[in-house]
Amino acid sequence: ALSNRLGGLGMHKKGLQGLDKEEVNKMIYETSKGSKFFKNEAIKDAAVTARIKKILENYNIVKKLDLSSESAIVKAKLKELENIRDFTQTIVHIDMDAFYASIEERDNPELRTKPMAVGDEMMLATANYEARKYGVRSALPGYIARRLCPQLIIVPASGEKYGLVTSQIQEIFSHYDSTFNMTSMDEAYLNITKYLSKAEQTPDEVVQEIRQEISKKTGGLTASAGIACNMLLAKICSDLNKPNGQYKLENDRQSVMELMKDLNIRKIPGIGRVTERILNALDINTCGDLQGKLVIIHQVFTYTFFNFVARAALGIGSIDVAFKMKRKSMSVSRTFAALHKPADLRKKLRELAKHLEKDLAKHNFEGCHISLTLKMTSFKLLTRGRLIKKFIYSADDLYNYGKVILDAHLPLN
DNA sequence: GGCCGTTAA
DNA sequence: TAGTTTAACGGCC
């Protein structure tokens, strides 16, 4: 049987629907099986399966219990959540379409009609829509992508070029909402409530205009957008008419609940492939299913998780577009051909320490906790850390404290 | 407190 | 031949 982790990966992405999923999965499986990477994925998969088994055992006990008092607690929580619903804001989530790939197409129009991806033999960052027809997608190694699509053109990433486009779209966003928040190079949230109060335009018209300006300023790049009353819904909506489209969700409870009813849980940001598997095991596939199972979720999982899914199921999200989390850590990591000799590993550590010193200086950052992660040839990760009584930032300190951790694990095999 | 796992882009 | 990098959070012991 095909590993869930390796096979059913990423097929929900736009552009992939409709192609022969079986064929793609089989090809990836045939190329991967036997590899150490694949074995490690199988181990991780088995751990998830075991975790699900435990949850199901608990679920089967709990569902027979009298949950009337639980039910009351959940009901009260839902009432509380209904009370905090806010329909006063107009939030937009903008997402550039196949960002890196579109920029490369713009700069080399011959690529437009050909399957193409940005990245290298090791890893692809993104694929154009032509390539997605073959199952080529981001987070797929280039050499596997080539087997899916032998004509695939792989273009190396040019970070500075993409950064330039990011600055261009930021300038556009600032005109509509000075508090706009970039969540990555190609994604942003805007609160256009204030702008709308002054402009004589509908939200759809404003967003249409933003997307036109993006296209004009960037030489024809397209973006998709979602418009809704909060960030969660705006993000979900920006995916609905991708690529080069926008979707506006009406600002009322009924419209929100209708959208959520049949929405696949995987579309909720924060629910990834593992959580999806877990919830699927409880017969939960859509946010509608989720709404009907909140009592059991409250019983079986932590309150934090219950709270998270309850909010998501009701379509309740933040409106604080400008909120930025304070940086808590800074790290650097490299994957390299297996090294065994302690001296070689220490040399690597020295290189990483120098690299991190530069980054720390650039951001004027320091830390009092250091952790070292080793990736074994089996792909298993080992992380060990320690608190330091002072704040450090120099390559020498990073190396010396890191070396203590590293040496404790030498020799590696 | 320390480590592992999940998620996202 | 070959399966990334960075950052944050939750769960568990």
Automatic annotation (TrEMBL):
EC number: 2.7.7.7
GO BP annotation list: DNA repair; DNA replication; error-free translesion synthesis; error-prone translesion synthesis
Domain UmuC: 91-272
A GO CC term assigned to this protein in UniProt: nucleus
Reaction catalysed by this enzyme: DNA(n) + a 2'-deoxyribonucleoside 5'-triphosphate = DNA(n+1) + diphosphate
Key words, A-Z: DNA damage, DNA repair, DNA replication, DNA-directed DNA polymerase, Magnesium, Metal-binding, Nucleotidyltransferase, Transferase
An MF annotation (GO) of this entry: damaged DNA binding
Family statement drawn from the similarity comment of this UniProt entry: Belongs to the DNA polymerase type-Y family.
Name of this chain's protein: DNA polymerase kappa
Organism: Ambispora gerdemannii
Lineage: Eukaryota, Fungi, Fungi incertae sedis, Mucoromycota, Glomeromycotina
Residues of the full protein shown: 110 to 522 of 714
